[in-house]
Amino acid sequence: MSNPFSDNVSKERLWERHQALARIGATVTGGVNRLALSDEDFAACRRLIEWGRSFGMLESRDEVGNVFLRLCGTDSSAAPVVSGSHLDSQPTGGKYDGVYGVLAALEACESIAASRVPLRRSIDVVAWMNEEGSRFAPGMMGSAVFAGARTLAEIKAVKDATGVSVAEALDKAATALADVPLRALGGVPFAYVEAHIEQGPVLERLGKTIGVVSGIQGKRTFRVVVEGEAAHAGTSLRSERKDALLAATAMVGALIEHIHDEEDVVKFTIGQFTVTPNAPSVVPSGVTFSIDLRHPDSDVLRKLGDAIDGICQQNAAPCRVDVKELSTAMSLDFPDHMRQRIDSAAARLGISKFELYSAAGHDARYLHGVCPSGMVFIPCHLGITHNEAESITPDDAFAGARVLAEVLSELAQLES
User: Fold this and answer.
1) What are the recorded GO MF terms, alphabetically (predicted)?
2) Mean pLDDT, range 143-158, rounded to an integer
3) Residue 295 labelled as part of a binding site
């Protein structure tokens, strides 16, 4: 059966583009370090724009640093279909997290353009700014501001570990992409579809190629700041010390005990732990640590998260502690009709599929709040991700892009 919109997807071109982007910010051990709003991030956006221009897509950017490429439809007044993900990475990230969603959308559009079949709605490929949150916290800034969940002023005030603000980094982005037209911030797409590597082992274990994502589990993030008092390690008495590190470890121990569940469903992570002044012979005067809490049941997530401040306060003495919640996102389910479109596209193409929940967060979380949204997963070897050993296959990448091309073209032909 001929499928004009997906028949021109090129496995070789899609794979070569992945490897080309992987060289921008490449690490010596085969991964990628391409932080949000860095020179490497700008270079990746530049390369993406060049590829889009090569077959007639029109580039634009918005004030929050999101980059768009448009495949124009026949009705310029119709809301566009949007697809993409992100180009930024963790400091020791892999080659495919986020990037796959952007390049699969680009490849889908190139295949659709090659079909020469006119579509009513435009299709926008997007690279969202700072999905990872590894340089500026919290993550998903670009999609959150686009969807109206955060304000531009709010995220501009955030600073990285070196004191550089998002506002300053966005000024650099405006200079680096000065020739790219500025578009209005926000909007209401007709629909949003995000392709992504699974970041889990389920599809590979089951021998399935396409994951029809049913929803995204909830997540709450916190920053805990413990204030003690510096003192000489050799002369200060234990009874008189205000050791921020001991207080912080007491908090961590109590949190682990409270949040532990035998079913191993709760995901509780302290991924960042900073000690001040971090000197061998000085009692620590301060500790800052992060908390990443996730659960698919919003009621459980709410209950566990609400207990964090009290537990930290109970274990702070003789120090002081301040707990700030950085982001809250309850669990969500994607619309049935979006899931069905993805399922049907895979079936038409004869590609195996399986419905599953996303344990990781994605920009689709915020787009879900403004338009019908869905996600397409492809397998990720052993579920390894946020790791330089992250791996996918060219065949799976190809299959996912074909499904995406079918779904995007179908949505772009709809009247309403």
Assistant:
1) hydrolase activity, acting on carbon-nitrogen (but not peptide) bonds, in linear amidines; metal ion binding
2) 97
3) no
What residue type is assigned to position 12 of the chain?
Answer: E
* Chain centroid to CA 140: 6
d(CA 383, CA 113): 33
- Give CA–CA dist 344/356, Å, rounded: 15
Neighbours of 310 (CB within 10 A): 11
pLDDT tens digits for range 261-289: 999 999 999 999 999 999 999 999 999 99
Whether 4 is in a domain gets the answer no
Is 258 annotated as ligand-binding? no
Q: Are residues 348 and 365 in the same domain?
A: yes
386 annotated ligand-binding residue: yes
CA distance 389 to 65: 28
* Domain count along the chain: 2
Question: Is 396 within any annotated ligand binding site?
Answer: no
118 belongs to a structural domain: yes
For residue 415, say whether it is annotated as part of any ligand binding site.
no
> In degrees, to the nearest 5, what angle opens at C-alpha 49 toward C-alphas 46 and 54?
130
Report field, pTM of the whole predicted structure over 0.85: yes
Q: The tokens 């994502």 sit on which residue? A: 213
